[in-house]
Amino acid sequence: MHEPLLKIEGLCAEAGGVEILRGLDLEVKAGEVHSIMGPNGSGKSTLAKVLAGREGYEVTSGSVLFKGQDLLELEPDERAREGVFLAFQYPVEIPGVSNMQFLKESINAVRTHRGQEPLDTVGFLGELREKLAVVGMNEQLLQRSVNEDFSGGEKKRYEIVQMSLLEPSLCVLDETDSGLDIDALRVVSEGINRMRSPERAMVLVTHYQRLLNYVQPDIVHVMVGGRIAQSGGKELALQLEERGYADFTGVDDPAQQTNPQEASA
Amino acid sequence: MKGATETPQHTASTLVELVERGGAAIEGDAPSWLRDARAMAIERAAAIGLPAKTDEEWRYTDPKPLLEGQFSLPRPGAHEGDDPCEHMEIESAARIVFIDGRLAPEHCRLSGLPSGVEVSLVGTGEEADVEERLAPIVAQGIGGARDGLEALGAGLITGGVFVRVDAGVTLEKPIVVVFRAEDGSPVLSAPHITLIVGEGARASVIEDHQGSAGATGLTLGRSEVRVAKGAHAEHAMLQRESPGRHHVSTLRLIQDAESHFHSDRVLLGGAVTRNNIHATLQGESCEAVFNGLYTPEERQHHDSHIRVEHMAPGCNSRQYYRGILADRSRAVFTGRIYVKDVAQQTDAIQSNSNLLLSDAAHAVAKPQLEIYADDVRCTHGATSGQLDADAAFYLRARGVPERVAKLLLLQAFAGENIDRIENEALRTTVHALADDRLGAALERNT
Is residue B70 part of a domain? Predict the structure, then answer.
C-alpha cells in the first residue's frame, strides 16, 4: 500500500473562538477523488481553508500530513508550491493586479520550487492558451485585473484554469459547483475530469450531489458537526440527494444546522 | 560669476525673523521689480500672520519647523560645475536646472522652441523684460495668499521660469524644470513657475524637485497656471527632495471657459511637506483633474491641501489622491469643493484613500463640501486601511511568496494613480521610484 498523500488525524480547529472541526480523520491516496458533503455549518469549508492555511483558523489539536510532511507548519504560499491547491468558493477580486502578472508570478514561483526553469512570456502563453481553451476562456482576460468584473461562472472556470496551470498533487475544491448554471457546471466538470490522474488526488467539498453527476468520486464522506460521520461509495451521495442530511443531523432542514461562523466565512 | 561673500541676505535667519525685520531685510542685486515683490510678500505675511498650529488649516501639520528653522537665501550668481541631477529619460521642449536655488546655465537647454512659445528665466539676473508680464501675477498671488507662508512663497522668488504659449499654439513636449538641493547647509529656495496658456493652446510643465541625501533647508515653491478659453494645460510636480529638507509648494490655477487642466503631484521625499492647490474654475464648462500620490515613510509628513472653486456652470473637477504610509509617517489630506450659487451642473468628485503599512503610521482625511448651487453632483469618499488580507491570501494560495504578494497589491494601489500621470516618461520614472520605495518599506514594515 502507498503512503496516503494526505493524512488527517484528530483535527480540531476553531475560528473566532468557536470550535468548528472536532476531531476529523481523513486519508486521501494519490489517484483518488473524494467528495465531502454535509449540511451548512458542518465544517466543510473550514476544512478546506485550514488545509490552505487561511489566517484566522486556529488548529487546536490533531495533525495533517501531506506527502509525509507536517502541512500545518508551512505558510500558505509554501503549501501551494508544495502542490496543495485550493479552488476558492469565492475567488477574490484584485483590482490593479493583472491576470498576466498574477499567473506568471504564480506559475514561476511553483516551477522554481520544483527546480524547473521559469517560463518566459512566450512559453507561458503557450501553456496558458491550452488551459483556457478547455474551459472556454481566452487570453483577452490577461489584461484585466484578477477576477475583477468576472461573472460567477467565469470566476469558477478561472479557478480551474489556475489549477490546471499549476499541476498540483492535491486539489481541494471548495463548493466549486455553487452558483453555476448547468452549462458552466458541465464545462467546469470537464476541466476537473481532465485533471484526474494516478499521481493526483482531489477533494470535492460540496453541499449538493449534482457536481457528482459529472465528476464521479471514488469515496463520499458525510461531514456533520466537524467530523466525518460516514464514508462510502458514490451511492452514499445519491442517498443524501434523496433523503437529505436528516439521518445524520436529526433535523429535516439542513439550514437549521447553520453554524454562524461557517456561514459568514 | 559674482563673489560668494556673505552679505546680510545670506546670513541664516528664520522666516519669523525675516517677517519681523520687514521688507527692507532682503537686499542685494535683484532687479527692482523683484525687490518690490519680496518686500510686498514680507509685508503681506506680516499683515495676515504666519500660520500657527492653532489655525484650522494647519491643525494636522505643525508649521514650526518651517517657520523657526534657520535658513539662508541662495548665494548670488550662477551655479558652475557638474550637473549632479537625476534626470528622467524625457523628451522635453526645454530644460532648466537650478542647483541650490541658483541657475545652472551650462545644464539648461532653451533653444529651438517653436514660435509663439516664450520661456524666460526669472530672478537669475539674466532675464530680459519678463517683469511687466510677471509682476501683476506675482502681485495677485501675494494679495490672494491665505496665510503668511503662502504670501512668502508667492513673492520671495529666488529663481524660476516664466512660460507663455500664444493662442492656438501647441507645444507637444513638456518644459522640464529641475530644482536640485545639494548643499548640506540649510538653503531657502523659493522657485517660481508661471505657465500661461493662450486661447486654444496646449502646453505642459514638469517640475522635478530633488536633492542629495544630505541636503537640508526649505523649498518654498509657487506655480501660477492660467489656462485661457479652450486651452489644455498640464502641470506635474515630482517631489523627491532629501529627507532632511522641508517642502512647501502651492499650485495656483485659474481656468477660463472650456479649458482643460491636469495636475499630477507625487510626494516622495522631504521632511515636512505641504502641498497646496488652489484652483479657480472661473469660466463655464472647464475640466480639471488633480491626481496625487504620496508615500511617506520613517518620520516624513506629507500634507495635501486642495481647494477647488467652481465659479461658473457646467465644470467638472476630479481630485484623486492616494497615499501609502510606512513606519511612523503622517499624511494629511484636506480637500474642499466650493460651488458658487451660479455654478449649476457642477460635477465634482473627490476621492482619497490611504494604505497603512504600520500601526504607527497615521493618516487624516478631511473632505469638505461647500455648495451654494442646487443642481450639482458632488461626491467625496475617503478610506483608510491595511492591505486587503483576502487578496494577499488568494495570491499566496497560488504560490506567490508573501512579500511579492504584498508588493503586487501595493503596486496595484499606487498604480491606479501613477497610471493616471499624463506624461509617459514621468509615469515610468514614478513607477520605478515607487516600486523601489514600496519594496523597501515592506521589508521594514512586516
Answer: yes
Q: Do the Cβ atoms of B347 and B319 come closer than 8 Å?
A: no
> What DSSP assignment string belongs to B251-279?
EEEEE-TT-EEEEEEEE---SEEEEEEEE
Count how many domains chain A has: 1
Q: What is the DSSP string of B426-438?
A: HHHHHHHHHHHHH
Q: Which domain holds residue B119?
A: 8-281
A80 vs B contacts (CB less than 8 Å): 396-399
Whether A203 maps to a domain, the answer reads yes
Express as a percent the part of chain A with pLDDT over 70.
93
pLDDT tens string A2-46 = 689 999 999 999 999 999 999 999 999 999 999 999 988 899 999
Collect the ranges in chain B with pLDDT lower than 50: 1-8
Which value does ipTM take for this structure?
0.93
DSSP character string of B29-73: S--HHHHHHHHHHHHHHHHH----TTSGGGTTS--HHHHHS-BBP
Question: Which one of A55, A113, A166 has the shortest CB-CB distance to B398?
Answer: A166
The band of A129, judged by pLDDT with boundaries at 50, 70 and 90, is very high
Domain that residue A48 falls in: 6-264
**Which residues of chain A make contact with B386, given a CB cutoff of 8 A?**
none
To the nearest whole Å, the CA of A79 is away from the closest chain B CA by 7
Q: Which of A106, A143, A147, A164 to mutate to test the interface with B (most CBs of B within 10 A)?
A: A106
Would A90 be classed as within a structural domain?
A: yes
Residue of chain B whose alpha carbon sits nearest to that of A53? B397
Alpha carbon of A84: minimum distance to chain B alpha carbons (Å): 8
CATH number of the domain bearing residue A157: 3.40.50.300
Contacts of A88 in chain B (CB under 8 A): 394, 397
pLDDT for res A258: 47
